[in-house]
Structure to design on (296 residues):
């Protein structure tokens, strides 16, 4: 009888060890399938989220002012859209549209609705025309004309500038919630004065009324003249802050982080006719900045 009890205990111990061993494998995630309805994580990987920003948009529309129309880049007092930094076809510029789409596709998949002399208040209307094409990317460059008024007192207020830019973005978003936006900063107008004031040609052309709030009495360095220029410069910087802040609220908007404002336009990059608008070379530099911002 004692031997039988010892045998029974041995068999019981072996069976118990086997059962616990099997249960242990399941507990540590072995190869056995989890019971149906369990909370065990699935082995199937989660789908990757779609990136918010597409570095390769298939179409481009541009809105803004005379910089985007290529004004004074090819001939005096004339638009030259073929050298526009945004949508131009000139190989000398290699515009943003050409860089993104290729020359053949850019010809049929890019549109320029910028207007020489436009201010931010005009951009909402341009945006309405742009959305008709359903572009995947819209470029915005406006604000220089808001600062370039007859006097500093006539400049667009910062509050109005903000409202007008928000209205333009609202016009886009109401029609195309997923279209991306590239926003260029307003150029450094003080830098343009510093470059052109030593040019006899530049000073003479400026007398015709180009950005008088900054460029009027170009040779004067009196306290009053310097204060006038500083006031205009401060307004430009405030505009750029608005562009940055409004753009930051939109997941599909990219501001250039002040790259256009900080670019040191020199004689080569400025129009030989007015020492204010970008030359063909200057347009190419703007295209580089935009492409870098869009594709990074």
């Amino acid at each position: 009888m004692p031997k039988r009890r010892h045998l029974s205990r041995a068999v019981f111990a072996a069976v118990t060890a086997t059962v616990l061993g099997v249960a242990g494998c399941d507990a540590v995630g072995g190869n056995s399938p989890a019971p149906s309805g369990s909370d065990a994580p699935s082995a199937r990987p989660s789908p990757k989220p779609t990136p918010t920003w597409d570095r390769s948009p298939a179409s481009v529309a541009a809105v803004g002012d005379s910089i985007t129309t290529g004004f004074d880049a090819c001939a005096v007092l004339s638009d030259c859209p073929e050298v526009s930094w945004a949508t131009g076809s000139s190989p000398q510029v290699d515009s943003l549209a050409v860089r993104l789409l290729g020359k053949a596709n850019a010809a049929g998949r890019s549109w320029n609705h910028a207007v020489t002399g436009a201010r931010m208040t005009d951009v909402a209307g341009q945006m309405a025309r742009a959305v008709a094409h359903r572009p995947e990317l819209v470029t915005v460059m406006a604000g220089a004309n808001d600062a370039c008024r007859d006097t500093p007192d006539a400049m667009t207020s910062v509050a109005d500038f903000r409202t007008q830019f928000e209205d333009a973005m609202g016009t886009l978003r109401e029609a195309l919630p997923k279209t991306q936006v590239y926003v260029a900063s307003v150029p450094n107008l003080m830098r343009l004065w510093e470059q052109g004031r030593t040019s006899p040609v530049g000073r003479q052309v400026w007398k015709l009324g180009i950005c008088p709030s900054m460029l009027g009495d170009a040779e004067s360095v009196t306290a009053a003249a310097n204060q006038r220029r500083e006031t205009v410069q401060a307004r430009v910087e405030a505009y750029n802050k608005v562009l940055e802040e409004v753009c930051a609220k939109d997941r599909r908007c990219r501001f250039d982080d002040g790259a256009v404002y900080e670019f040191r336009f020199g004689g080569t990059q400025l129009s030989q006719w007015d020492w204010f608008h970008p030359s063909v070379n200057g347009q190419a530099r703007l295209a580089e900045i935009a492409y870098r911002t869009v594709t990074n």
In short: The chain has 13 helices and five strands.
